[in-house]
Amino acid sequence: MKTLVWVEHDGSTVKDATLATVTAAAKLGEVHLLVAGQGVGAVADAAAKIAGVSKVHVADDASLANGLAENVAPLVASLMGHHDAFLAPATTTGKNIAPRVAALLDVMQVSEILSVEGPKTFTRPIYAGNAIATVESADAKLVITVRGTAFDKAAREGGSGTVEAVGGAADAGVSSFVGEEIAKSERPELTSAKIIVSGGRALGSAEKFQEVIIPLADKLGAGVGASRAAVDAGYVPNDYQVGQTGKIVAPEVYLAVGISGAIQHLAGMKDSKTIIAINKDEDAPIFQVADIGLVGDLFTLVPELTGKL
Amino acid sequence: MKILVPVKRVLDYNVKPRVKSDGTGVDLANVKMSMNPFDEIAVEEAIRLKEKGKATEIVAVSVGPAKAQETLRTALAMGADRAILVQVDDGVEVEPLAVAKLLKAIADEEAPGLVILGKQAIDDDSNQTGQMLGALTGWGQATFANTVEVGDGNATVKREIDGGLQTVTVKLPAIVTTDLRLNEPRYASLPNIMKAKSKPLATKSPSEYGVDIAPRLKTLKVAEPAGRTAGIKVGSVDELVEKLKAMGVA
Ligand SMILES: Cc1cc2nc3c(=O)[nH]c(=O)nc-3n(C[C@H](O)[C@H](O)[C@H](O)COP(=O)(O)OP(=O)(O)OC[C@H]3O[C@@H](n4cnc5c(N)ncnc54)[C@H](O)[C@@H]3O)c2cc1C
Ligand SMILES: Nc1ncnc2c1ncn2[C@@H]1O[C@H](COP(=O)(O)O)[C@@H](O)[C@H]1O
After folding, report:
1. In chain B, where do the E strands start and end?
2. Based on the domain organization, do A155 and A234 belong to the same domain?
3. What's the order of all strands across the beta sheet hosting A162-165?
4. Domain of residue A267, residue span
5. Which residues, listed in sequence order, are joined to residue A37 by a DSSP beta bridge?
6. Do A34 and A126 share a domain, yes or no?
7. CATH number at residue A210
8. CA of residue A128 relative to chain centroid, distance
9. E strands, A30-94, where?
10. Do residues A152 and A41 both lie within one domain?
11. Same domain, A152 and A198
């Protein structure tokens, strides 16, 4: 089987989410990559070095500069004439593009796979991860998104794929990119952080979130996450949200501070290696999944903890 | 401009899903069902656009069993004008691809300016239908919307993406899918719930639209995820620091 993997990049480097997707693709067959964008020669060269990659298709065109699904999907669909499976990381980019490809191919997508069980059989979470379904596709081609935390990352070095330019990109003329507000941060990205400190509604304000959560995260060199309630209340930006409909994370240590543990939140973090919870309610559901719990007021406990580290 | 809003009847988000002991699925017998939360946000957004004079009519659509009428009545009570139920037998699950094909057929008939869907149904967690409808119609798609501004022949949408926010403009007609922070849906008032009972609700079948709803994915098994058990509670910050040190974290 020949697979085609969507390479997520920022114009210069390949993002980590791609590496887990390569591992999933390698379980199905030969791994080809697609690097799409404008001025992406360096990305293509980096992609060709990823372990296990045999070919990199490069589509360099102004219409692909911002990854608009309307322009990307037809290009991918045309390449699927000689590939059997298209895989994209289950990031907001991958989720935006892959279903559009699937419908063009008249294929039912398999979303957020957790494992490859056979050439057409996969497991995937449903109901916020409260159930795991094993599904078998009856379609001739496969379109798949891959949950990054469920697969090891392929090594960035060791491969020697050939690089091949592909043409045919065009502007579908139905959408255009206006702008982006991307938070620049020195902090580890949530989906690849080893330690995450997350705050919930209990923090009460953006100021308190800064004052209490950030120093602890700094001490631990941790990424910072939040519950939906904390994001909705405006304590932190939307891309901090961990959960069923936010980011899925699985760090070595996840520290939940003032988070109750709603199923939608647990869906995003319950595969963390060690979960630590600080909550003043000893019956909070978060304690049912926490390896280590500390009951009490976060406004005294967290500064004390930060001070003692 | 007409707005089409697809709404799905799903297990209420407050109910903890239970996997059936025979491994065939999640138990939906005698549990509370509600409108998919993201679809409530979609209905709300459509109503706000109508209130702002940007839209003239809101048509709610559901693909599901007879009981999905309740979900459509909820949409009507919130403020949708009429509803279409594409009815299937109880227990039949219609996959996103087939739902998208039915919506495409309905869009051909109704010629909406916007279709506003939820970004994901909280039962199958597929996050596909809107994008698939985008492919089938050839229209632009603004997924994971955080704000929607309808202009002259286009819509400008701020999207929630992994690193922050992205703004795109899509030509109308277009597809929008909702994220959590687009708005806070209203509750239907009692008088509006009463009024909704007499709003038009048409019932159709997939075959009337010529759409084959046979599933492409076969569910071989549904299982509980590997469970986590509660660990220990520590009595003080000092104890927690010790644990962190033992893990090599601090
Ligand atoms: C469709 C849908 C999707 C959703 N997706 C997500 C998602 O992706 N991610 C997500 O997180 N949520 C999601 N939610 C929301 C989820 O259901 C919960 O509402 C949310 O997670 C609650 O956030 P919280 O734990 O911060 O707030 P709360 O539930 O209000 O909990 C606050 C906790 O803080 C504790 N506390 C209060 N004061 C203190 C103090 N001084 N010291 C210590 N502890 C204190 C309380 O005991 C309580 O346990 C979703 C909901 C829906 C309907
Ligand atoms: N059976 C259905 N009936 C009506 N709308 C649906 C149905 N299934 C999915 N949708 C719409 O598509 C969105 C995304 O669903 P999904 O792709 O299944 O995650 C939902 O939020 C609904 O707006």
Report:
1. 2-6, 9-11, 33-35, 57-64, 82-87, 114-118, 140-150, 154-161, 164-171, 174-178, 201-204, 217-223, 232-234
2. no
3. A110-113, A142-146, A85-89, A2-6, A30-37, A53-60, A162-165
4. 190-308
5. A60
6. yes
7. 3.40.50.1220
8. 16
9. 30-37, 53-60, 85-89
10. yes
11. no
Residue A197 in contact with residue A190, Cβ under 8 Å?
A: no
Average pLDDT, chain B: 97
Residue A217 near residue A240, CB atoms below 8 Å: no
Query: What confidence category does residue B235 fall into, taking pLDDT thresholds of 50, 70 and 90?
Result: very high
Whether the CA torsion B151, B152, B157, B158 is positive or negative: it is negative
Q: Does any domain span residue A177?
A: no
Which tens digits make up the pLDDT trace of B96-143? 999 999 999 999 999 999 999 999 999 999 999 999 999 999 999 999
Give the tens place of pLDDT for each residue, A186-204.
888 898 899 999 999 999 9
A-chain residues near B159 (CB < 8 A): 92
Query: How far apart are the CA of A264 and the centre of ligand 1, in A?
Result: 9
Q: Which pLDDT value is given to residue A191?
A: 87
**Interface pTM, i.e. ipTM:** 0.96
Give the ligand whose atoms come closest to the C-alpha of residue A202. 1
Confidence of residue A185 (pLDDT cuts 50, 70, 90): confident
**What pLDDT shows up at residue B250?**
78
Which residue bears the tokens 């401009």? Answer: B1
Interchain CB distance below 8 Å, A289 and B228: yes
Residue B42 alpha carbon to ligand 2 centre in Å: 11
Given A149, A165, A181, the domain boundary residue is: A165
pLDDT of B228 reads 87
- Name the domain boundary from A165, A181, A205: A165
* Burial of A207: CB neighbours in 10 Å, binned 0-12, 13-18, 19+: exposed
Whether residues A161 and A298 fall in one domain: no
Query: For chain A, how many structural domains are there in total?
Result: 2
A162 Cα to chain B: minimum distance (Å): 30
Q: How far is CA A176 from CA A71, A132, B167, in A?
A: 10, 37, 9
CATH fold for domain B2-246: Rossmann fold (3.40.50)
pLDDT in tens, B173-226: 999 999 999 999 999 999 999 999 999 999 999 999 999 999 999 999 999 998
DSSP symbol at B185: P
- Count the residues in chain B: 250
Residue closest by Cα to atom 6 of ligand 2: B8
The verdict on A133 and A196 lying in the same domain is no
Asked if residue A154 and residue A210 are part of one domain, the reply reads no
Query: By three-state DSSP, how is residue A32 classified?
Result: strand
Ligand 1 atom closest to A230 (CA): 26
Show the tokens assigned to B57.
């009519």
C-beta A233 within 6 A of ligand 1 = no
Specify the residue for token string 């109308």. B172
What pLDDT was estimated at residue B226? 87
- State the CB neighbour count (10 A cutoff) for residue A197: 29
Order across the sheet with A195-199: list the strands: A223-226, A195-199, A253-257, A274-279, A292-295, B232-234
What are the residue ranges spanned by the domains of chain B?
2-246
Tokens 């602890």 — which residue?
Answer: A216
Q: Are A135 and A207 contained in the same domain? A: no
